[in-house]
Amino acid sequence: MDSEVDEVVRVILRMLRNSPEFVEKAASQTLGIMVENVTPARATTALLDCGVKSRHVQVQKCAAELLLSLLEKIGVTELAGTAGAGRLAHTAGTLALDRHKDTRHYGQEMVKMLLNHQEGKMLLELTVRTHDL
């Protein structure tokens, strides 16, 4: 499944756009199951590439929620040792300032988790402007 993650995420996130609520719920649940069953690095990369960059509010919200669950799953200390740690920290800072309240909430929760660990705090200081922190 790891080799197909990018395409699966792209297709499922596309289903979130202008869909009925029950389709949005099913797509979100499907992505949650996928995130649980692939490597965290692949899931993070796919969500950062396809979800967070989207202009659609529902897609961004779903991606932010899943990134938060991934961060909770792998932990900040594990994250600090990965290659995409800076990118995720920067994205968390960006999401924390999002105009949509749900997306902003998930971003703020990620920032709080990062700030509670020395490695995460250093990542945020390196990737997010001081003014935004």
Automatic annotation (TrEMBL):
Gene3D superfamilies: Leucine-rich Repeat Variant. GO terms for molecular function: microtubule binding. InterPro entries: ARM-like. It comes from the Eukaryota. One of its GO terms (cellular component) is cilium. GO terms for biological process: microtubule cytoskeleton organization. This is TGRM2 protein. It comes from Tychaedon coryphoeus (Karoo scrub-robin).
